[in-house]
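Repro:
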Amino acid sequence: MAKTEQGLILEPCQELKFKGPFTDVVTSELKLSNPTEKRVCFKVKTTARRRYRIQPNSGVIVPHGSVSVSVMLQPFEYSPYEKNKDKFIVRSLFAGDGDINFDVLFKEADKDQLMGSKLRCVFELPMDSAAQAPQNNIDASPSPHPHLKASKRSPKVTHSHKNS
């Protein structure tokens, strides 16, 4: 059984980036474009359902149309040393005419007709925090001694002068 290539164009195509701080909802946009002459149904899923809200999480894209999907990361306590394995999958299927029941359509779809793309999730810190800790994507590996920092700076000496 050969895997069917994704019929949609995804922007971004490999990873969704979320920029901290993560004390409030952080949103990342995913653009889905249909370059074909057929209607395409889509469904966006994640490996961490409680952590994200996806709007819309499913729909139909008309020929040569596009849809912007908002992926909202819910507030959480960020740790740069915790590995992030969250992923998203965009499933798509060419749609016929008429009304569509997405639950039935994707459950009963022929596996040869189902298309899919995976996106990994990356958390980015603001610039002032980024110098202190690595990004916690799946490829990052924490320092064995995070409390030790090498510094090439000499100690800062301040002098105060009082003028009377």
